[in-house]
Amino acid sequence: MAQQADPPVEAPAADNPRTAARQRRLHWLWGPAFVAAIAYVDPGNVAANLTAGARYGYLLVWVLVVANLMAVLVQYLSAKTGLVTGRSLPELLGQRLRRGPRLLYWAQAELVAAATDLAEVLGGAIALQILFGVPLLWGGVIVGAVSMLLLTVQSRRGQRSFEFVVMGLLLVITIGFVAGLFVSDVAWGEAAAGLVPRFEGTESVLLAASMLGATVMPHAIYVHSALARDRHGDTGKAALGRLLRATRGDVLASMLVAGAVNIAMLLLAADSLRGVAGTDSIQGAHQAISNTLGPAVGALFGIGLLASGLASTSVGCYAGASIMAGLLKVRVPMLARRVVTLAPALVVLALGVDPTWALVLSQVLLSVGIPFALVPLVSLTGNREVMGEQANSLRLRIAAWTVVGLIVALNLALIVLTVAGIG
After folding, report:
1. DSSP 39
2. Tens digits of per-residue pLDDT, 215-242?
3. Beta carbons within 8 Å of 107's beta carbon, 6+ residues apart
């Protein structure tokens, strides 16, 4: 075989316009992970993190750090699935499951998606009440209507425009929830001590499971594979390696932002809300933040919460549509699905259920649903028949199955301790 000539030696990136342009184009491929990351800063996170910080101070900081590290691996594997196979995770499962198991799997996935949507609409409604005094039920209607407009952007202007809108909302969310740290007095020594894994009773385990369910989101696992596939389409072998490199950067950057926002919320609550009466609801927490840190910080918190609800409910609807299309091969118009999935949240608001507690419980349900998304994801991405030469390496398989084991163990501990507490 004739030996190929060595490629010409290029100048360093800083001095080579072609390399610099290629790097810029690589960044231009970012986007799908930032859309998926909205699931990691939704109103369920707000409720879980504020509750954890107000009740236990810095005790559960470690949960957010570990969960975010897990999320980096999980979301990369999800995006990798879509890029390598050209199919979303629900589509791959739909091809492999018989009708009965497929329907059961779809039912649990839809239940998880419904719990997600419940949290997101409730959070947006609470934000509108905080900012403008809008009754919760009407707030839910407004959030649903605005989310339909956001979905219209995706259906009419394409995914890239939708990504830009969602990324803009993510910026608002970040400013809204991080701003308070600049005027608060966080005990950084205690926060560092919170990196040591430990619990304080059954309720702290319940909150840890809630935080985990709010951070490693089942519907984000399903939808990221579809987002990556829909954004980049079918790719050749040469382009695939470049896309996977871009995806790693996309995931790392987006999860860094989401992780920072979540930790900021917990630190803010630990500093400003611990021991303060009436902080067992988001409304009460907002009032306490406004009283302690000033009305401007309180207003930014409310704006961040509103942006979180609007963006996350739109992404959640996208995820639900991907799940249904993949598992049932049924495509329902996105706006029609939005109307149907909005109903449970409006019912909860109309019945007067405590919205903050409903948010926390919805995150526990999400935590229980995580293994149903994770186990197939890790199994399929380690399968050479599915992924070819891009199948997970042994080291990556060990890391991924360790993540699955930790999540399942936390859920089993939650069940055991909760039952023991009731007994």
Report:
1. G
2. 788 889 999 999 988 876 656 666 788 8
3. none
Q: Residue 120 domain-assigned?
A: yes
pLDDT digits (tens, 9 = 90+) for 257-287: 999 999 999 999 999 888 787 777 888 889 9
CATH of residue 130: 1.20.1740.10
For residue 189, the one-letter residue type is G
Q: Which of 336, 249, 260, 339 is nearest to 26 (CA)?
A: 249
Distance in Å from the first CA to the final CA of the chain = 75
What pLDDT sits at residue 208? 85
Query: What is the tally of structural domains in the chain?
Result: 1
Cα(370)–Cα(356) distance, integer angstroms: 22
| pLDDT for position 101 | 94
DSSP 184: S
Phi, psi angles (nearest 5°) of residue 155:
-75, -30
pLDDT at 12: 39
> Which of 275, 312, 234 lies closest to 46, judged by CA?
312
Long-range Cβ contact pairs of 371-375 (< 8 A, separation 24 or more): 371/404, 371/407, 371/408, 371/411, 372/105, 372/108, 372/109, 372/112, 372/218, 373/89, 373/109, 373/112, 373/218, 373/221, 373/222, 374/74, 374/216, 374/221, 374/403, 374/404, 374/407, 375/404
Instruction: Answer whether residue 147 is part of any domain.
Output: yes
Q: What is the pTM of this model?
A: 0.87
Classify residue 368: in a domain, yes or no.
yes
Looking at the domain assignment, is residue 137 inside a domain?
Answer: yes
Q: Please say if the pLDDT value at position 74 is more than 60.
A: yes
> What would the mean pLDDT of 23-42 be, rounded to a whole number?
77
Interval 335-343 mean pLDDT: 82
Q: Are 246 and 26 in contact (CB under 8 A)?
A: yes
- Angle at the Cα of 273 from the Cα atoms of 282 and 352, rounded to 5 degrees: 20
142 CB neighbour count, 10 Å cutoff: 18
Structure tokens at 121: 């609409």
Domain that holds residue 323: 34-268+288-383+392-422
